[in-house]
Every structure is written in structure tokens, then in C-alpha cells.
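Protein 1 of 2
SEQ + STRUCT:
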Amino acid sequence: MTDQTAHRTAVVVGHGMVGHRFVEALRARDTAGEWSVTVLCEEALPAYDRVGLSSYVGAWDHKELALAGNDYVGDTAVTLRTGVRAESIDRDARVVTTSDGAAVPYDALVMATGSYPFVPPIAGHDLDRCFVYRTIDDLDRIRTCADAAGPGAVGVVVGGGLLGLEAANALKQMGMTPHVVEFAPRLMPLQVDEGGGAVLAKLVTELGVTVHAGVGTSAIAENDHGIDVTLADGSVIDAALLVFSAGVRPQDALARTSGLPVGERGGILTDIGCRTEDPAIYAIGECAAIEGRCYGLVAPGYSSAEVVADRLVGGTAEFPGADLSTKLKLLGVDVASFGDAMGATEGALEVVLNDAAKGTYAKLVLSDDARTLLGGILVGDASAYATLRPLVGRELPGDPAALISPSGEKLGAGALPDDAEVCSCNGVDKGTICSAIAAGACDIASVKSCTDAGTTCGGCLPTIKQLLAASGVVMSKALCEHFSQSRRELFEIVAGAGIRTFSGLVAAHGRGAGCDICKPVVASILASTSSEHILDGEQAALQDTNDHFLANIQKNGTYSVVPRMPGGECTPEQLIVIGEVARDFGLYTKVTGGQRIDMFGARVEQLPAIWKRLVDAGMESGQAYGKSLRTVKSCVGSTWCRYGVQDSVGMAVDLEKRYRGLRSPHKIKFGVSGCARECAEARGKDVGIIATESGWNLYVGGNGGQSPKHAQLLASGLDDTTLVRYIDRYLMFYVRTADRLQRTAPWVESLEGGLDHLRAVVCEDSLGIAADLEAAMASHVEGYRDEWRGVLEDETKLARFVSFVNAPEESDPTVSFDESGARKVPVLMGMPSVPVG
């Protein structure tokens, strides 16, 4: 439905990142409601993050890549048509004819058709096992072929540029063995020089990718089980599939057939206002040849989208040129290139620091007087990129060699002039960010909202943090009004001083009586540093409702009971007891996503009797109520499955028994998959373990929830002992350092240095605390006691399980259920009754 107040129509052909940006920009500027917008999207899916395409691998959930607001729900001025291609343009009538036969009139036509992958005319390029790497559909097709080939099969990528290395990373994540073939003498020839390319090749090779540089691909032919890829030097790669990633070409076919001029090397020719020869037609993004030049990066595409949006509402914006700087993490390797990276400027000088032993390469390109920064290249460590890139074209404030030396001076954001561009994706300079901070934006989220800085690639976030700090904004680390310390600092105080009570902690290091924020946090810390029962003494009064009754409260004030089932295993006898308990107490039962059984509808006074029967049957608390380990999900593994390569069930059982009862800042979930097919969905968990022929791959920092995150590879090819050792360190490091209610995914992101720092701590013991972390976990394992068994053995603890402390024999009269349908469901009578003991 189109807004009836609009009297002009803009038709957008293409709905990639730039097309979506244009729609957002026009809707934001069109305050008079003059324009309605029709978007023709050839793909079945609306706009998604094509820059982050490789992150689709593993989760295989296209929703994770979807751009915010890409469906325009609630915006009656925008009509989105997916799966519809623009077939022709009648420029005289100003009508677009679509693939479904519709005629769509326009007052302004915006071409945002992007680009298409270039496939070299090699013999065999059209075989079924040859693919391109451009869309989600492309990755789905590659995945099908990779799965059929099996783990470890060879995948060849033709092209060693940005997209080529991304494609190689995707194949590696699919369990394949990648080979990269690059015709140029080095990888990423447009971004890095010979020295940087050598370091990059070394780092990539160490990560399991075979590099063939300085050689072309001459032929592709089928064999009995896959394809033979013949290189120009006569060597042959026996592979399961091949991916072409040898560059892109502007998608200008529709413009050509419509008679619009194109550039010498393709692309729809436009002026500096992004308008074509036809005054009603504009071109933006990769398909546009702005004054004859095409730009293949998202930042200049966004700039062109903003220009056209401004023009359509009467503005005179012009394309400002493009910052072609890039900063990426390819196969886990940092690579950055900015300004005149190759030193093409006459008289340019180069300052180079090449540390092959550490795997880092840094080069600054300077003017002939060695004072002005012209560009640079960073490989292996790109931490200086955020402050160096905005200084391109300006006088350096320090010694160039010291600026790229690990032991030299480091530039802070304060060294940048106000007009230095901090966020190149959205064209936001330092002055704009500082003005937003001065106006009250006192955290990252506020700065993002006010300026759009940091909302695209996120590469400028470290600089924004520095500007916040430099502006005098103090981001409080206090847990609450009763403690000025952070959770991490309180953990260190409790562990170091041996404090075992909340009252002792608040008396020595806090103030007041505490609140519903600090009490559960301190209770968790006390539980994490000791094997005392959480309902012992003063501890009991600190717990929230769930931990107070060791059960999960439901919407009508009843509780659910979840016995532990390590790895999803349960004996027939235990299943019978669960069935009898559910029948006798009238509980609703459900098999959970974590491979165990949940029984709903228990009244608080029934909990001890229910748990008595479960404990007598050899079961224990599943701790579904706690900020602790919940489940270790598992597939059946090599014991039963014909694809399994390791005993995933056995590993899952061992891990769940090892880490059960571990109290932490938030809940923790594990997954163990017996092969790369990933039936246990391990990469959606806080700890994910995936079996390979050579051992276990360990993934960390994944979670579902409101902001789902894909777990990242921490270490690969681990034996059982090393796997457990690394998990011990990872979990205890998380327990000690995470903030209150912080899941592992945002915790990993919040670490200075992110995953790389975590890997150094866990795998390399960079902080020298590995032995301490392992000892802490060993103490937890040795001291574990089932919480419900502890309640049943203590009359004092049992006394708290009543609905009303002043009438212990009475049940809560507000609790009732509707059992008229197929399922028993709670009935709410006013507000749910939450018992307080």
C-alpha cells in the first residue's frame, strides 16, 4: 500500500546494501511526504549484509545478515517486491517492466543493480562443481556440494583478493581444505605490497590454506569423484569444488539495453550528482561509473545513495569522492590498507617495519619531506589503523617509525583534527562525534544513535571510545549504588580476602543494606568461589526467586522441575520415574531444546516431595533456574551415526558432569557435534565442540536470545585432555572477569583485543594465570554437591518451601490451570503470585 499523500514515485532497481541505504536516506529527508518508493529486489531475500557474507556459514541463518528495517514494515510509503527483476525500461513513458509482467511507472528511477562476479573463460568453468561467491544462494549451493564431498575435501578458490580470501575462509568453516590460486605474484595485490603480501601468505598458510601465487588456472575437468584443476605451471589440484572469486563487474546490462551511456570499463555513466544522461535516472553503488569511475566498496556506495536522496528533495549534493581504505580480518588475520598504500606519489618515502617472526608488517608512505602521511599498509596487527587513516594528507604528530613500532609512541584520538573523518562508512568526522558527546551522548550507543558513526563495519569504535574518554566522560563501572566496584573487582576482593558473606563484603567495601542488583551478584560470586550450598545461612536471603526455591518460576506462580540429563542420556527406569512424578503431581511435561524433560506446574510446597522421588531414582538438579551451566547438547556421534568421527555423547556427558553447578555471570550452554554436519548446533552455544578426524575444534562466545551470536573458533585439532584444559581456563576466566548478567558473546566482544586476546590467555597463557584458572576449576569439580540433595538432607532448608510463611499448610489459592484442551496451561487470576519465604 502506498501513502496517498505522496505524488511522485521513485523506483529503485536492486535491494542490496546501497539500495536499502538510499531508501532510508530518502525517507529521512522527505519530511513533506512528497515521494513514494517502489523497490524491485531480484533476490528472494531483502537487503542483507553482503560484506559479512562469510558469517552466514555455520549458523546458516539468513536472518543474522538481514539489515535493520529491510522489510519497511509499517512504512506505507515504501513498497518492497522481492523475487522480481526489472526486465526493461521505457524511458519515454518512464515505466519499468518487471519479470512478472507488471508495468511500474516512475518519476525518478534509481539504478542500484550492484555488480556480478567475473568468471574467467577457462575450459570447464561451467561445470556443476564450479560456483561463484556473491549471494546467500551461492553459499547454499556451495554448502550442498561441500557436504556431499565430506570433511577435509579440497576446495579451490580462483582469486586471492578480498573476496577470494573470504571465500577460502567460508570453505574452511565448512570443513574443507582450501587452496587459493592468484594470478598476481601475491595475495590481495590491490591492497598490499610485496612485503605485506609475503607476511599475509605466511599467516594464511599457517592457518591451513594452500596458496598458489603467480600462476593462473588453465583448465577444469571432471574426474571420477570431483574435478581436476590444472594450473598454468602444469600442476593439478584434485578437488571437490571450485569457487570463482576473481573480481566483479558492474551490473549495467539493463542500462545498456535502455540506451544509457556506460563507462569505458563498464558501469552506468553519471555526473557528480550521480545522474545519468537521462535526467530522471540515477545510478548508485557498484553499478555507477561516477564521472567515469566505478567504486567497489560499500562506503562510496553509501555516499552516492545519500547524494541522490538529497537531490530528489531539492538539494544540490555532489559525490565527495571516495576513501578506498579497507580494514578487514581475513581468516583471522588483520589486514588494513589506506591512502596511497603503494607509494605512487612522486617522491614518496616509505617507512617499513617487517617482523616475520611475529607475523606483522607495517608500512607508512610519506611525502618527500617525511612530514605528511600519504598512506599505509598493516598486516597481522592493524590496531593503529583507526588513528592513522584519518591523518592521511596531514602532518604526522610524531616519529613515523615510532608510530608503527610495537614499543613506540601510540597516537590517541586526541591527536586527530576535528575535520578528520573517523567513520569512513558514514562520513562522520571527529568534530561531529565530539559535538554529540558534548550534547550529552555519554556512551557508544548514544554516539551511534546521534551520528551513525560505528553503525556499519564498526572499525571506528575504538576511536569513539577514546573520544568519549578524552572528552571527560566517565563511564561508571560501579555495580550499583551500594558498591563502587565492578563485578570483576568484587570477585577479586572476595577471592583474595576470603570474604564469605554479603554483610562482610558490604561492611568492608560497600555501603547500605544492598539491593536486588548487588545481592544476587554477590551470591553468584560467593557460589563461584566456594562449594558451600547456596541456601546456607545468609546466602539464602541473597537469592532471587528462582534460586531461592531451586526451581524456575512460571507465569502463574508455579514452578518447573528439570532434572539433569547429561548429553540427553536417561535410563528407562529414570524415564518411568519422571512419568510417574508428572502423573502423580499433575505436571505438564515437555522435552526441551537442551535434550531433557521439563515438568511444569509444581506448587512450591510440592517441590521437596517431587525432588525426593527424582533424587532416589539417581537424578539430580538440572539447574534450569540458575545462572550456571544449563545443558550440554549432543548428537549421537560416532557410536551410532555413520557420519560421526568422534564420540560426541561421551564427551558431552563428561563435560556436563564436570561443569555442573558452576555458578557464573549468566547461564552457559554447550553443544558437542560428532562431525561437521553440526546436528547439535554447537556454534550457537557459549561453548561449542565439533569433532574432526584429527580431534576437536573448540568454538566460544555463541548464544541465542535477543541478539544471537555465532560462536568463533578458538582452537582446532585438540585431543581430549587439551580440550578440557582450554574449556576450564575459558570458563573460569569468564566467571572472574565478565560483568553482571553478561553472556559470553558480549563478554568476548568487550575484551580488549577480543578473540585474539582470549586465545592468547587460554591457549598461550599470556597472563600467566592458566594454572590458577585450572586449580579453581579443579576445586569446583571436587567440591560439587547436588543442590536438591542438600535441601532434602537439611530440615532447615526444607522449611522454606511453603507458599505462606505464616500459614505453611496452605496452598496458594490463586494458582489454577485450564485443562480443557490438549495441553494443560496456567490460568492467571490477576497478578501471578510470587511466594516469598
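Protein 2 of 2
SEQ + STRUCT:
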Amino acid sequence: MNEISAAAGEVMWQNSPPGSIYDYIRVASFSIGPCGLVEQWSRRAEELFGLPAADVVGKDPVEAFMPPELRVRGRNRLSEILDGKEWTGLVPFRMPDREDRQAGAVRAHGIAEIYVMPSATADGEQAALCLVVDVRAVRRIETDLAASQAIFGQSPFGFLLFGTDFTVQRANKRFATVFGGAVEDHRGRTVHDYLTRPEADRMTAALERVLETGEAVTDMQIVGSAPGDTEPRHWSVNLYRVHSGAGRTIGVAGLATDVTRRHVAAREAADARRNLALLNEAGARIGNSLDLETTARELLDVAVPGFCDLASVDLYQGLLAGDEAPPGRADGSAELRRVAFASAVSDGPLSAPACVADGEDPGPTEVGAVHRYPFNSPCASALRTARVQVVPGEEGSLVHTTLAVPMVAHDTVVGLAQFSRTKGSEPFGERDRALATELAARAAVCIDNARLYRREHERALILQRSLLPPGDPEAAGLDIACRYLPGNTATEVGGDWFDVIELPGHRTALVVGDVMGRGLRAAVAMGELRTAVRTLALLDLEPAEVLSALDEIARGLGSPSGAQHASRAVHKSREADLSEVYLATCVYAVYDPVTRRCTFANAGHLPPVLVEPGEEALLLDVPPGMPLGVGGEPFEEVEVEVPEGALLALYTDGLVESRDHPLDEGLLAFRAALADPVRPLEDVCDHVLNTLDTRHGEDDIALLMARIQGMPAESVGDWSLPSEPRSVGRARELARAQLVTWGLEDLVDTTELLVSELVTNALRYGEGDIRLRLLLDRTLVCEVWDAGLVQPRRRRARDTDEGGRGLQLVGLLSAAWGSRRTPRGKTVWFELALPKGEAEKGELSFDQLLSLF
């Protein structure tokens, strides 16, 4: 029996797989024979007590491993056992130190729990089978188990143990608290009892993969809702395969951490980053154009699809029509026009079903349509109160939420922006409302600026066009064609201008100028300079003198007092230094059809182009000079004799320069376009504009072209007379004969009278020989030249005066009269209209003539 019992213990140890519970609690066995000596000593006993069988078998067990002070009690207990009494108790034993076993060192701090079972041999003698457990190992297991129970039960994280069939084998208290019920209630459930089908399928696939491969899954994000949750929870799940002590797979353990707050914080941070990115994008993309419709589309380009799925912009119709101010915070039912719409879905335009009165269905609003919002609609309320309205979508509608956002600029509502999200998208939150308000406000400011710019642009354009000469200016000895192309609506009005001014003696002044700067101020500056040019031209000054005087005027306009005056003319609330605005370039040319000579003066402008018959186009070498308004430098003149049929072109830089090509290339292309000047002049202008890149719209373009047609010799009468009294009669005879030759008998009497007065004044107040010249073109011009420098002055004669009525008579009988300086004196002239079916201008009655004398 003893042998069998010992063998059984040995077999139990041998059959216990490594890592089993017997290994953890250190169970050993030995047997005591009838004589009280150890008969069997198991291998576990050798491990536990540190004594080999050879040192124990056949010896007294008390002597073998009990301390000396306990041996008396041990023998008494052994006697009781051999008498057939079963016993269990704690027994201290000596445990040799394994490292010092060879030296025989022992330590007596081992405690064993021994279970002694009396037995009998085949002969009926009493024996005993002893099972020994190391108390320290048992206490350690109890401590570990208690700690495990505490961790599992008191953990703030949810623990689950899934079996190999993926049902819950065990759940901790935290998990049960979150999902409800007692801990035992969750046994046997599956992930489908806690998660939606898509999430449950994903979790099941992860469990299968962990169970099959043994590879752990960390930080798997799962979305689920516990009973009573209004918002879904986010969980971070870690899965790992669990084995028994024998290495057998038990299942999969799961640790779930509620990371909803972290997810919400991350989402808020992502929203903040997205909103900041949208605002940065809005700052970069909205307002690049000064066009209202374009600015509205730029807003929607930013909002869709980055912020919403559908969006539209309505602007007040009055604002688009150019009214002084939009309706603002009226009742919200004023007319609006849908100017822009954008969609990230393919379900057609936004109809704004929630922004209608109850029971009404206006249908979709297309881009360009003019419409109204009923007074009691949310959109009208947003326009009326300047506050955002959250509009829920109607049942069955694609849209589930719409933000009706008033577009407010400078405390004025200019329109309404609607941002909508379709079903499946997240609803708008407070951050979204704030972002929508900011986006709409930015666009509103840009739209209001565009409105103000459009109004200023239109006014400047009206001013600019009103200051330009008529479409078909006429001049003696010149065939003239001109073109003016303003910049496109995306650019401000410029200060380009051209002019054709008739001068005495059938001469003509050709002017082209360009004020530096843009906008209404540039147009105002252009108008002032053009008026000054005309005034100076009527004084019949030389071209260089005209530019010098114009330079003084431009500098006066740019001075503080001039700037203040001009600033009030442009906008009372604006403070600006106009010194740059009143810098300008100008080329001024005077053409005399009698001599076919043209005198040029240039103030920093591009050189004129001259094309002689059969020759290539040339840039005239005219000293460029400084721009008007700089001052300090004199201007030079260049006189050029131009042949009959030659072509003269004056232009501004917008014709030959743009971002796409430099000035040199533009000038070369311009000259090439003038290679065939024989065609009609209007066709030449069209050919130039069609050949060159004139559609860029970056700057205004002014082009003034003139073909030289000298005055025929038969249309000129020119005589020199000595400075003596008889020259007065000779002058009358020459004038009468020339007018008869021209068939102007109706003008003979008036001409004789006025010629007599002018020649008489030349004899009385002038010096040197007298020159009489008659010119016939669209009018009759008479000029009397002398070497005197004193200019004639018209005065009112008293009744007692014998003279002083000659110039008064000239002024009454002529269409115009005047005087100008010449290099060698002065010229006094008068002009008569040709009698072509109309009453002669300046004709006086007999009584009026008598009243003069």
C-alpha cells in the first residue's frame, strides 16, 4: 500500500503538466512505514525540502527535516499517526540552502502544511501517506489572486474575457456599470449585444484575428452607445490572447477605455484647425476681385465643400443697380437677386424650402433670378434683425439644416448667405455658426467695397468720357481718327486722354497724355490737366511754353493747398497726398497745314510715330523731358517737316505695354502694324487694335492718328507790304481780288473793312514790314503780321474819342479774332464763317454800324 501510495504521488507529479496549479502551490508526497521510517520520498519532496531520497529513505522523518526543538512533539505526533489517527497541521522544517548544499548549510524557516492519511500494509501493519504543501507558495497565490480580483473588480477600465466562441466569459464591475446589469448578466453575450452591426462585425473580425494569430491589437477605435447615452461613446480597445498555465488557449481578453472626451477634444481641435484654415483661405481668396458677383462666388468656393454641402448668396437688387445705399435693415422683404450658388451634391439648385411663409412653395431660385422672402420667413427675419437663423430642413428634403446668415458690412445688411448641410453630414454647431458669420462678414465687406468701387468706377468713367473730344474731330489739313479703350471692370479708371484743338491760322494742336495713378482721382486730375491744356492752347503759346505752364499747374495741384482742394472734389472723408496722382506725361504737337511743319514738345511721354509714304514707321527723336509735376527742367521743341500723305500716331502706354510683353516688344509690334498706312485711316486704327494685344484690360488705351494733308497753294494768299499809309489801300485791293477768285463775293465788304482796321493798327502801333495772309479752309482766316511786340488790347471808346473802335469793330463783325506772338513779332487775326445757306455770323444792321462811330 505504501508503495502504491508513493507511486500514485509520483505519477500525479509526473502527469502534472508544467505550469499547472500543482507547480504553483508546490505539492509533494512521501510515505512512512510501520516502523516509523520514511519508505518513499517523491521528487517533489526532494524539491520542497531540498533533501534527496538517499538522505531520507529509511530514516526518521522527524530527524530528517524537523528542527531539534520540535523533534519531541514530532515523535509524539508520529506515534499517534501510526496508531491510525489522521492529522493535518503546520510543521516547521529545515530547508538547506541550495547554493550551500555541498557545505551542509541549513535554514529552518520553512513551514509546510502536512496532511497525514493513515494507511495499512498488506500485512495489516499501520503506515501513513503524507501530502505536503509549501505554505509560502499558497500564501503567495492567495495574495496574487486577491490582487487580481481587486484590479479586475476595482479597475476604472472595462475588462472582458471572451471565450474561444467569442462569448463573454467574464466582465468586470466597471463594464457592467457602463452597460447596465450585474456582472453575471453579461456572461454569454457577444459584441453584437453592445455595438451597431458595422462596429460589431469589425470587432468580431479583430477577435478572430487575435485568437488565430496571437498578435495583440492596440488602440482599436470603436464607437458605441451605452443605455441612456444621448451621444455615441468612443472606446479605445486593446485585445490579446489568453492562455492557461498549461499553455492552452482560453480566449481573448479585452481592455476598453472610454476616450470620448479625448475624441471630443480632438474633434474640437480639428474643427478649430479647419475653421482657421477656412478663414485663412477666405482671407486669401475672397476679395481679389472688385466685382460683386465674383466676390460672392469666391465666398462659395471657400465654403463648399469645406464647410457645407450647398450654399447660395443673395444680394439686394438696389445694391446691384447702383443705388446710393442698399436697403439695410428694412423689413427683410426687399427684392434680392441670387448672384451665386454652389453645390457638392448633384440634386440641383438650393430652393431654400425653410425660408418661405407657411403653406407657400416658391420653388427653386435660379442664379440671376430676382425674388423676395416673405416677411414671416426665417430668411427675412435674418435680413431684418441681422442675426443668424438656424433653419431645419423639411421632411423628405435633402437638406437637414440651413444657416441663414445676413451679410453685414459697416452696420449695413447687403445680402444673405445660406449654408446648408445634407443628411449624413454633421449638424451645425455653435462654432459653425460663428464661422459662418465670420465668412459672411468678410465677404460682405468685400462686396460693399466692390459696390463703392463700382459706383466710383462708373462716375469716373462718365467723367472721363465726358472730357474726351467727340468721336470725329476735324482739323484743317489733317485726316484724324482716334480710339479710346477703357480698362475692364476689374481695373480702375485711368487718366489717359487725348485732344484735338483748333488754333488760329488753321493750325491744330494734337495732345495725348496719361495721368499716373488710377481711379476717380486720376480721372479728376486728367480733367483738370486737359482743361488747362485747352486754356493754354488758346493763348497760342509755343508747345514748350504750354508744357512749362502745364508743369506749374500740375505742381500747384500737387501742393498741400491744391491737394486739399482736389481731395474735397474726390471725396470729403479721404485724406490723401495727391502729389503722385498729379504726375502726368504728355506730348503736345502743333501742326501748320500751310508749311506742313509739326512742332513737338514732350513731357516724359512715349515718342510719336511717323510713317512717311513708302517708308518704315519711325519713332521720332523728341527729347522726352520730365513728367508734368516734377518741375525744375525746361522742355525742348523739335520741328519736323512732314510730307504729304504721311501718318502721325500719338498713343499711351496701355497700347504697347502689358504684363505679357515688355515695352520694347510692344513698340516693335506697333510699328509693324503701321506698315501699310495707305488704307483709310479708320481701317488703320482698327488694324492696329486688332493686331496688338489690347484686350488685357490692365490699362486704358488712347490712340490718336492723323494723316497729313497740307493746305493747297491756291487756298493761301500771302503778301508783304511796306510800312507806309498806302499799304492800307493795297491790302484792301489784294483781299478783294483774292476773295473774288475764291468766289466769296459775299464776304468782300466785311473782309475789306476788317483788313483795313488791322493794317492800320499795324502801321500805327507795329514795327517793320507788314505781312497779309488769307487762308481758306472750313472758314476764312485773315492774318496781319508785323515786327512789333506790343499786343493789341480791345477797349471801349468814349463818345468824345476819335479812335479806339477798330478792334471793337473786328470783334463784332468776325466769328473770332485774336493775336499771338511770333519769333519776329506778333500776328493779329480774325476769322469769318463761310456763307453756305446760313446767315453770316456777326452780321450787323446799319444802325449798329452807325453806333460804333
